[in-house]
């Protein structure tokens, strides 16, 4: 900006409100090109790896809980910020929707420690031994809590969006990519598990990608309503 230029360049920070590096790896590429004036950080980038207990009974509730907690924690550091949180569950029809909202804590652990991905995968395969109906769906809810520039004053909002993908559960692990239950989940009409795809291919169809794409569309609408350009506007040197 020159001394005579009164245009303030307003930057917005999106914080990925998760301590899970696997989710960050998937979400980052889907968010990177909204605007050159939007920068993306994860909690680790900011040295803010706080844990938020998932105490709600729905994915929506837990996603909002995480977005609100991280927003409150970091709101003093950024004028314009959006905390974006993901909560995901795998819902198996023959298990009446389990593990669902409890997907991260599915396998019972004798010492009370959180189960690993491997523990949860083993537990699901055991629970489904001999079950013929193996239909399931992955569901993600993305919650955003934000404060963005408005024409005359700042605008605060909360927003949720969901993405869901149907598929089937395999009888054994297949593939080495991805994380969590990926080696067991075959999205409909693909014939391969998520773990047999790379991130780029998973991002063309996944539950998380669908929810993030909707969140980005909602965010663009909110920003444009408040005169923040999401086109390729470059700040003046
Ligand atoms: P949460 O959303 O952090 O509660 O995560 C729920 C659990 O579901 C994670 O610990 C993973 O085991 C699993 N999970 C979440 N997203 C995915 C995914 O995209 N693929 C496979 N497993 C996932």
List the helices and strands and how they pair.
Elements (H helix, E strand, L loop, with lengths): L11 E5 L4 H11 L6 E5 L16 H16 L6 E12 L6 E2 L16 H11 L7 E14 L6 E15 L15 E3 L11 H4 L4 H19 L12
Parallel strand pairs: 1-2, 1-3
Antiparallel strand pairs: 3-4, 3-5, 5-6, 6-7
Helix pairs in contact: 1-5
The chain binds inosinic acid.
Mean pLDDT: 92
Run of helices and strands: EHEHEEHEEEHH
Hetero groups in this structure are: inosinic acid
Reported CATH architecture: Alpha-Beta Complex
Spatial shape:
elongated
> Into which percentage range does the β-strand content fall?
15-25%
Contiguous runs where pLDDT drops below 50 for at least 5 residues: 1-6, 232-237
What is the CATH topology assignment?
Maf protein
Radius of gyration: 20 Å
Class, according to the CATH hierarchy?
Alpha Beta
Let me know the largest β-sheet. 7 strands, mixed
Distance between the termini: 6 Å
Helix and strand content put the structural class at alpha/beta
Would you count the extended β strands for me? 7
The tally of domains stands at: 1
SS field, number of helical segments: 5
What helical percentage do the residues reach? 25-40%
């Amino acid at each position: 900006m020159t001394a005579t230029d009164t245009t303030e360049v307003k930057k917005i920070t999106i914080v990925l409100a998760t301590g899970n590096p696997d989710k960050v790896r998937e979400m980052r590429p889907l968010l990177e090109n909204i605007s050159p004036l939007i920068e993306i950080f994860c909690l680790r980038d900011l040295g803010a790896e706080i844990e938020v207990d998932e105490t709600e009974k729905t994915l929506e509730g837990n996603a909002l809980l995480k977005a609100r907690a991280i927003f409150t924690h970091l709101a003093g550091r950024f004028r314009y910020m959006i905390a974006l949180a993901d909560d995901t569950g795998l819902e198996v029809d023959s298990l009446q929707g389990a593990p669902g909202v409890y997907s991260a804590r599915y396998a019972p652990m004798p010492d009370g420690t959180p189960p690993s991905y491997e523990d949860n995968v083993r537990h699901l395969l055991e629970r489904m031994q001999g079950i013929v109906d193996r239909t399931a769906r992955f569901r993600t809810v993305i919650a955003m809590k934000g404060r963005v520039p408005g024409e005359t004053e700042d605008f605060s909002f909360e927003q949720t969006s969901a993405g869901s993908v149907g598929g089937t559960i395999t009888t054994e692990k297949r593939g080495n990519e991805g994380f969590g239950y990926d080696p067991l989940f075959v999205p409909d009409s693909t014939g391969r598990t998520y773990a047999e795809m790379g991130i780029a291919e998973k991002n063309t169809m996944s539950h998380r990608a669908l929810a993030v794409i909707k969140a980005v569309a909602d965010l663009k609408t909110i920003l444009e309503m408040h005169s923040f350009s999401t086109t390729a506007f470059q700040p003046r040197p």
